[in-house]
């Protein structure tokens, strides 16, 4: 029993550390990592007073929205979990069945585009910006329920032109990439 | 009085012809063309039994949706007013205030993108298609209330790749153009 306790204590510490390093890890991923049930992970989080993933995302997003100048919070498709104006930004979008083509159950391209475009816009340090040009590539079809992570990087600012690269992944696999030129007006 | 009657008769004939040649002309445009009030145009249409623009668009669209293979009617952003599979297609979208950025009242880019992408998809003669690559350019900001006309042209079919160009105009001014490569699966 003491060994079991020690094991739990050990797990709790590692769990805490893991979530600190990777705040957007899911309970499912944690359960695989520690080889315990999802229920156990939930109890561990409860004990450690760590909120569930959706709550953690929302808490982080709330702070980040305040930094955005170009567009309103509700205009960003996905939750903004990291932002450094004119440098980079990260957003998360959980896809669902409302976003798919009926026939194929594949997420419609314009949702993914909207996620990328709105993140590109959010990351710009300007009052008002519009998309001028976009060059995009869909690499892998996205299925309903998959969690998209978009990372934007401002690669160049020239006058009122902002060059932004956005990559979207599902579990480390790139599903989309876009190059945007935004114009501040 | 007889001359007045003749004038009206003349106008009615020209009006009928005008709408036949350009079925998507608005009452406002007709009123400018014939230098009479919009009310007069409405009465003329009533007399000639020609439905209002929205109705005319819907009637034409209904027939066109049946020809589309790749996607469902509700999945096309805009009304499909002309389609010839693997050749070309035209759609109309009346923008409204729900589509704009709060700050600028400019229509959000992804609505325009969605209009173009869904038309590109509709025009393909395949059961299932996905967007692979898109290269797009926004030329002029679109304001709420403006009527968008998208014209798609299939420029090349190579194996299961379909090359589609889409141009979107507001009153003959190009506001957007996109080049898409769609992949049938």
TrEMBL record, chains A, B:
InterPro entries named in the record: DeoR_HTH, HotDog_dom_sf, Thioestr_dom, Transcription_factor_FapR, WH-like_DNA-bd_sf
Keyword Glycoprotein: no
Domain HTH deoR-type: start-end pairs: 11-64
A GO BP annotation: negative regulation of fatty acid biosynthetic process
A molecular function (GO) term: DNA binding
Pfam families listed in its UniProt record: 4HBT, HTH_DeoR
Top-rank lineage group of the source organism: Bacteria
SUPFAM superfamilies in alphabetical order: Thioesterase/thiol ester dehydrase-isomerase
Record-annotated Thioesterase domain positions: 121-174
Keywords: DNA-binding, Fatty acid biosynthesis, Fatty acid metabolism, Lipid biosynthesis, Lipid metabolism, Repressor, Transcription, Transcription regulation
Identification of the protein by name: Acyl-coenzyme A thioesterase PaaI, contains HGG motif
